[in-house]
Amino acid sequence: MNEQLPVELLSDAFNVFRDASRKLEEQYALLEDRIDELSIELAEKNKAIERTRRLAAMGEMAARVAHEIRNPLGSMAIFANLLERELASEPDKQRLANHVSTGIKSLDNLLSNMLLFASSPEAKLKPVDMRKVIEESLLLAKGHDRSDVSVRAEFCGQTSIMADGVLLRQLFLNLIINAIDAMDEGGSLKIRTRVVEDRQRYMEIKVSDTGRGIRKEHIDRVFDPFFSTKDRGTGLGLAIVSTVVNAHSGFIDVDSVAGEGTAFTIGLPMLREYRI
Ligand SMILES: Nc1ncnc2c1ncn2[C@@H]1O[C@H](COP(=O)(O)OP(=O)(O)O)[C@@H](O)[C@H]1O
Ligand SMILES: [Mg+2]
Known about the structure:
The chain has 2 domains: 1-119, no CATH class; 126-269, 2-Layer Sandwich (Heat Shock Protein 90). Helix content is 54%, strand content 18%. It has 5 helices and 7 strands, in the order H-H-E-H-E-E-H-E-E-H-E-E. The strands form 2 sheets. It has a 5-stranded mixed beta sheet, with helices on one face. The chain has a two-stranded antiparallel ribbon with strand order 1-3. The protein is elongated and about 125 Å long. The site of adenosine-5'-diphosphate (ADP) has 23 residues, from helix 4 and helix 5.
């Protein structure tokens, strides 16, 4: 028996079908929008990955270039030194040779900082004499020094410690240069070491200056890589300082009053089994 479906039933079914298809269309449109959004996001992420790759490659290249520049720079330093000595009787010319030496030292410091920054170094601990390390750093800073800045180093108690002398020299060189930079109207730089018997025995080294100090809003950022308030600063100095301190499982504090001066205090653990 072919009974005809009631018209209402057909019309209800048609309405249900129309609602369902409208909902599907809406869902489809939403999905299309989402796909568009995801494609844009993916394109941005791909760009970011590409940028990171390029930066990493640039970093590697910078480290390689730094290495390559090191050797000829060493020869130039020797030559400039010889020239300085040869020109002892001609002070005007000697001053020029001295400029060359100073420029080479700055470049060498920049390269050392770049190489250390690129390599996240490990400390190779050996017995070192902190007095010798600090005196060598002061010597390396020659050229940055000025007649209106007095320098005093005081060593109290034991100065031998298990540490990485090469890394520490770079650490102090950066602190000393920063201190001198901060005293463009003259002042005094003091370096003092002492042994502290706390829960752990450690050597404390305080580097203080009477320079312009660090502004409050900058104090939390001074150890950030590339943070610099100087026209030609790289912002790598204190980043290296904190890397070297960490490599020795030490600590660093900074205490500064704008207009009065700055003191960096470093603590390096002294291994108990090492005594001389
Ligand atoms: N002894 C100091 N006195 C005053 N400001 C300092 C001192 N040491 C560091 N700073 C501040 O910290 C910043 C970062 O120092 P650093 O990482 O060595 O980079 P750079 O010397 O290239 O600027 C400096 O630009 C300066 O503003
Ligand atoms: Mg610096």
